[in-house]
Amino acid sequence: MQQLEELTRGAQDFGAAPGGRATNGRATDGQTATEQPVHIHRRKVQSADLTADEAEVARVMQICNACRYCEGFCAVFPAMTRRLEFGKGDVNYLANLCHNCGGCLHACQYAPPHEFMVNVPQAMAKVRVQTYGDYAWPAALGGLYKRNGLAVSLIASAALVLFLALAAHLAGGLLHEPLAGNFYAVFPHNTLALMFGAVFLFSMLALGIGVTRFWRDVSPGSASGPAIAEATHDALRLRYLGGGHGKGCNNEDDAFSLARRRFHHFTFYGFMLCFAATCVATLYHYLLDWHAPYPFFSAPVLLGTAGGIGLLIGPAGLLWLNLKRHPMQGDAAQRPMDRGFIVLLFLISLTGLLLLALRDTRVMGLMLALHLGVVMALFLTLPYGKFAHGIFRSAALLKFAIEKRQPNKLQLGSD
Q1: I want to staple 148 with a disulfide (CB 3.0 to 4.6 A). Which of 85, 166, 385, 410 is the partner?
Q2: How confident is the model at residue 209 (pLDDT cuts 50, 70, 90)?
Q3: Nearest-CA neighbor of 185 among 203, 167, 198, 173?
Q4: Which residue positions does the secretion signal occupy (predicted)?
C-alpha cells in the first residue's frame, strides 16, 4: 500500500508540476521539493491546449493510471491504460466513454476528502458537456448547452403551445364539434410535415456534423464489422450502466442499483417505439395512401401507445433518481439541462396519450396544439441539450471497440 501511495503521489505531482515534470514532493541534497524527479514515466501531460476542466481529467487519469484499482469497472479504465499522456482528443474521448455510473467514486481511496481529490465522474461530466459545445454546429449555438435548462424547455414549450393554439383558434379548430380524431382538420398534413420535418432534419444535421467533428479529433481508426456490432450491442444494452459487475450504478450512496439502467431502457425504447409509430404512419400515408386517423389496433397507434407508456415510466424514474443523486456524482451545473430534457420527454408522452384518449372530443384541437408545441420544443432543443450524450457516447463506444482490437503497444494493463 505504501508503494502504491508513492506511485500515485508521483502521478499527482507529475500532472501538477510546472511543465508536466514529475516530483514526489521530497527533496534530496541540492534539490528543492519541486525539483526531485519521480521515474514513473518520462512523458508529460499535454496541457498547453487543455481547458481547466480537461486538465483536471488529465490529472485524475494520471493518478488512476498509477493505481489501476478500477480497471475492470467500465470501458474508461482499459482505454486509459493504453495511454501515458492525455491530450485534448484523449480527454474528450474518455469523458464521453464514461457513463457516469459512480462506481469508481465510491471505490476510490483517493476520492475527497483525500488530498488527491480524485472524482472521476464529476471531472468527466464537466468535460463531456464542454465537448458538446465545442463540436456544436453552427458553432455560435454551442453556448446553448449552458443555458438549455428546465426553465428554457418549459418556456419554449409554452410559447409554441400558445402559438399553435392561436393558429388553431384563428382557423376555427381550437374548440369544435368532434372530428372523429382527424388531426388534419385542425392543422393540414402538409403544413405539419413541412414544419416538423424541417426542424427535425436540421437537428439531425447539426448533431451529425458535431459528432463527425468529434470522431475526426479522437482518431478512431477503421471500423470493422465486429467492432460496430460490439459497440451497437453495448449501446443498446447500456452495458456500462451495470457498474462492471452487473449489479448496477451508485446513485445517492454506495449501494448498487439497476434502476438507472432500467429507466434509461424505458426511455430509449419508448422513444424508439414512438419514432417507429411515426415512420409506419408515414409509410401508410405516402406509400399505401392510408390516411389518419388510424384505429386503436393499427400498428401506428399500438406502437405509439407502447412507446408513450415507456416515455412516462422512464423519464419519471430518471427524474426521481436525478433529484436524489449524490452531489459529488456528476456536475451540478448540468442538472437543469438534464431535467429539462427529461421533463420534455415526459410531457410529450403525457400529452400524446391524452390526445389519443380525447381525439374524439371537442377539446381535440386544444390537446393537439399542446402536444405539438411540446414536440416542437424538443426538436428545437435536440441538438443543444442532453440528447447529444447518446450520440457522442455511441461514437466513443465505437472508438473503444475499434481500439481494443488494435495492439496495445504499452502493455501496461490487462488488455
Answers
A1: 385
A2: very high
A3: 173
A4: none
